[in-house]
Structure formats: structure tokens, C-alpha cells
Design brief:
With 494 residues, this protein is of the alpha+beta class. It has 15 helices and 27 strands.
Length: 494
């Protein structure tokens, strides 16, 4: 049975299948009865809850408040901002009727044609339009600004090609929407929030990210500027892991949101929006996991320490479990999440395989001999190493070890990411690196959307970002040969 649990497709053989196997076998999520949607199972949701709680705290520490806006958006709202509707039109789910009735031929229920809505409703793919229609009622004066709102919600984007967590028709996310008196304030907010995401990705998820500007082709529909955090997965593909948008006055003008300034003038409001989604779960899985299963950073692991009793007979089981419960109490007092697996209907070998698959950072095994000797077996998931250690001082040892594992996971991902950034100066070199090595390609680009599109069509690689810390450097575009003033990062992506 334990072998069955670990029967994963090898990542080197088929990375995509390895990912799907892992999501399902580790009990994170599964496909639902609705095509393109997923069921997030308790273990997967426990990780998302941790993400939610940490991010929510970070948002509130930066002055934001949570609110909730409607799931349905009148169709007419979308037509107000031209680039916004163009960007989302192909992904929108539309509600046209509000009632069912029994089929006259007894074939179940049918849509009642008499119950057609006067105006169709869009199931939110994102909330800028409904929120800015609301802000119009909230804002009259400079005294009403800034508004710093966030909402945790589900959104629908009708995807045809789906993959659990990475791309589903419905997904969970948070979306911040803020209103400001000046462009400077809004730009500062945009930068602040992308750095919140960077901190979360690196310090909590253990995933190193590059912060940068999206190119015009990759920018959010309706934004003046989009900032992004780009992560690199172990197959050499990039994953956009969070975005923050400076919306200028586009939505304020579309919904006529003005305020009276201190000077008594009518001014349009400046806006931002920013968000991360359950796509972070995909990043977490693909950045760290291996052919044995998940590798979870301790800070986000639902179970940080699992305790597996080794015994013969009920008497020994009770003795070992009792000792484990004492240890667990001490660890919980230090804020460590612990599970004592006292099940007597599965063997310890099965438990070892199960928790290895689920990515539990630390595993403790204790038997009668250990009880006599005052020792315990300690295994760590990140390195797959194990050792016999003294029970004395175990609590402090584990607390320190969890920090060490967190740092080790990040460092491993960082070393890999850094080794996968390659400078190229010719089109031949670009294609070779892309096809043979992958990762981020640092190359000159002439700054035109036409060239970016041509590269995408030729290679499927896109500009992931123009790094925030990019240095001016005279060069020539690898594709067009035209002058270029800096390098950008290209990659194939999810």
C-alpha cells in the first residue's frame, strides 16, 4: 500500500503528469463534475488558509480593510473601459435567465424563456468595474481618500485548457482595489503591494521571485502599468505569481469618479488593483517538490511535525503514544503544529510514505527501545535524511530545525533560479538556450509590441518582466537587430 501512495510519474519523464499525480495523490485537489473546475480538498485548503491568513495580516498592517462586492456585474459596466472589456470578453461567463421550470414533456427542468434578464449579468472575472461603480458613491471630497479595500473572493474565467490550481475556470483569490488623490500615491501603493507579495513569496513560500514591469502586450487589461513577481519552476518555465496594477484614471473616467480637491477643483481619482490567487499553490508545489511527493516550507505546512509510534501490541502502543502526547504538548506551546498518528489500522511504513508524500517537514518515530534509551528517530523531508537523537532538548532542536528547513528550501530554489538566468546576444543563442536549457533568458528587446509578438509566435516565449533593477545597457534586439537600451527577461511560462 505504501508503494501505491508513492507511485508518482517521475518529473523527468513527464513533468506535467508528475504535477497532476502529485496534486491528486497528496490529497490537495481533484477535478470536479463541472469541467474546468476543481474541488480543493481539506489538506490543500489548509495550505491555502495559511496563505490567506498571512497575507490578510500583511494587508491589514499596510492599512487595508476587507470588504465584499457582488459576484454579478451588469454587462453594460464592462463596455465602459474599452481595453478592459477587450481583455476579458473571451473568458466571461454570462447569466441570461433567472428561473427554471419543469419540462412539459417530463424531461427534467428547462430554462424558462419568460424569465430572461433585462440586462445580462457577467460572473466576475475581476471586480474593477463593479467596485468603481460603487466608489462613485463613496467619494466626493479629498477627505474621502484614500480608499484601501481588499476582498477575498472567487472569480470565473472560462478557460478551455485547465490544470489544477494553475488554470481553472473558477479560482479563489484576493483583489485589492484602492483609490487615491494623486498619481504619486497610487504608484507608491502599486509598488508597496508588489513588495508585500515578494516578501510573502520568499519568506513564507520559500520561492525566490523577480520583481518587474510587464511589457505592454502582457499588461493587465485597463492598466497603465503592471508590476509582477515572476517565479521559476523546476522544469525551467516561469510562473507569474502575483501582480499589482497602476490603473491611472482609466476606471475613474469610465465611471465618472471625481473628487473636490483642497483647492476646490474637480479631479478624477487615481486607482490601483492587485491580487494573488490559488495559483500560488501551483507555485508552491512546482518550486520545491520531488519524485517522493510534496516538499512544503514549514511556515505553510498544515502539519509541521508528525509523530509515528513504533510498537508491538496495544500496551506498547499506548505507552509510546502517551510519550508522544507529552512531546506534542511542549511543541504546541512553542507554536508548532503537531500530529500524533495513533492509528492502529495501518502499518508504520505506510504512514512514513504518506507523510513523505504530503511533504510534512519533520517526522519523528519512537519505539520501546527508544523509550528505554531516551532517543528518538528524526527525519527531515527536505533532505530525506534521518538520524537518531536524544529526547532531551528535542523541542528547541525542532523549533530551530524548522527554521533551518525553511531557509534551506528557499536557498535551494534560489540557487536553481540563479543558475537558470542566461544572458544571450543573438537570435541563434536565444533559441538554443530556450530549447535546451530553459529558464529566464536575459536579452535585448527593441521595445516594440510587434517584435514581442513575433518572438512569441516563433518560440512561445514571452517577456516575463522588465526587472525593476534593470541597468541601462546599449545593445541590439536579438530578434530585429534594432537598438535597445536594456535587457528584459524572456521565458516560456504557465
Amino acid at each position: 500500500m505504501a508503494v501505491e501512495l508513492k507511485d508518482l510519474t517521475k518529473s523527468d519523464d513527464n513533468y506535467s503528469q508528475w504535477y497532476n499525480d502529485l496534486v491528486i495523490k497528496a490529497g490537495l485537489a481533484e477535478n470536479s463534475a463541472v469541467r474546468g473546475c476543481m474541488v480543493i480538498k481539506p489538506y490543500g485548503y489548509a495550505i491555502w488558509e495559511k496563505m490567506h491568513d498571512v497575507l490578510d495580516k500583511m494587508f491589514k498592517e499596510t492599512g487595508h480593510e476587507n470588504a465584499y462586492f457582488p459576484l454579478f456585474i451588469p454587462k453594460s459596466f464592462f463596455s465602459r473601459e474599452a481595453s478592459h472589456v477587450e481583455g476579458f470578453a473571451k473568458e466571461c461567463a454570462v447569466v441570461t435567465h433567472y428561473r427554471l421550470k419543469n419540462d412539459e414533456e417530463g424531461k427534467g427542468v428547462v430554462v424558462d424563456p419568460a424569465a430572461r434578464l433585462e440586462e445580462e449579468l457577467i460572473v466576475r472575472p475581476t471586480s474593477e468595474t463593479i467596485i468603481w461603480n460603487t466608489y462613485k458613491n463613496w467619494i466626493t471630497s479629498y477627505r474621502d481618500l484614500p480608499i484601501l479595500c481588499n476582498q477575498w473572493a472567487n472569480v470565473v474565467r472560462w478557460e478551455m485548457r485547465t490544470r489544477l490550481f494553475l488554470r481553472t475556470a473558477e479560482f479563489l483569490w484576493q483583489e485589492g482595489h484602492t483609490a487615491h488623490a494623486t498619481a504619486e500615491e497610487a504608484i507608491e501603493e502599486t509598488e508597496r503591494m508588489i513588495n508585500v507579495y515578494k516578501t510573502f513569496a520568499e519568506e513564507w513560500m520559500g520561492v525566490p521571485v523577480i520583481v518587474g514591469h510587464k511589457s505592454p502586450n502582457e499588461r493587465f487589461a485597463g492598466a497603465v502599468d503592471t508590476l509582477t513577481i515572476e517565479a521559476l519552476m523546476q522544469d525551467g518555465k516561469a510562473l507569474q505569481s502575483g501582480t499589482s496594477h497602476f490603473l491611472g484614471q482609466n476606471f475613474a473616467k469610465a465611471f465618472d469618479v471625481q473628487y473636490t480637491s483642497k483647492e476646490g477643483k474637480q479631479e478624477y481619482v487615481w486607482a490601483t488593483s492587485w491580487g494573488v490567487s490559488t495559483r500560488l499553490m501551483g507555485a508552491l508545489i512546482m518550486a520545491h517538490s520531488d519524485n517522493n511527493g510534496l516538499v512544503l516550507p514549514p511556515k505553510l505546512a498544515p502539519i509541521q511535525v508528525v509523530m509515528v509510534p513504533i510498537y508491538k501490541g496495544e500496551e506498547q502502543r499506548l505507552q509510546v503514544v502517551a510519550r508522544f502526547e507529552e512531546m506534542a504538548k511542549e511543541l504546541r506551546a512553542k507554536g508548532v503544529s503537531v500530529k500524533v498518528d495513533a492509528r492502529d489500522n495501518v502499518r508504520s511504513g505506510f504512514k512514513f510514505a504518506e507523510y513523505e508524500l504530503k511533504g510534512v517537514p519533520v517526522r519523528l518515530a519512537l519505539g520501546p527501545r527508544d523509550m528505554e534509551n531516551g532517543t528518538i528517530e528524526l527525519a527531515r523531508r527536505d533532505t530525506l535524511s534521518k538520524e537518531v537523537v536524544s529526547q532531551e532538548g528535542l523541542t528547541d532542536r525542532i523549533v530551530a530545525l524548522l527554521d533551518e528547513i525553511q531557509q534551506n528550501i528557499f536557498q535551494k530554489a534560489l540557487d536553481y533560479r540563479n543558475s537558470m538566468i542566461t544572458k544571450v546576444d543573438s537570435w541563434e543563442e536565444f533559441q538554443q538556450v530556450l530549447n535546451e536549457k530553459g529558464g529566464f533568458i536575459s536579452a535585448h528587446w527593441d521595445g516594440t509590441p510587434e517584435t514581442e509578438q513575433a518572438i512569441k509566435e516563433a518560440t512561445k516565449a514571452t517577456i516575463r518582466c522588465i526587472p525593476m533593477d534593470v541597468e541601462e545597457e546599449e545593445g541590439t534586439c536579438v530578434f530585429s537587430g534594432k537598438p535597445s537600451k536594456f535587457r528584459v527577461l524572456f521565458a516560456k511560462s504557465y
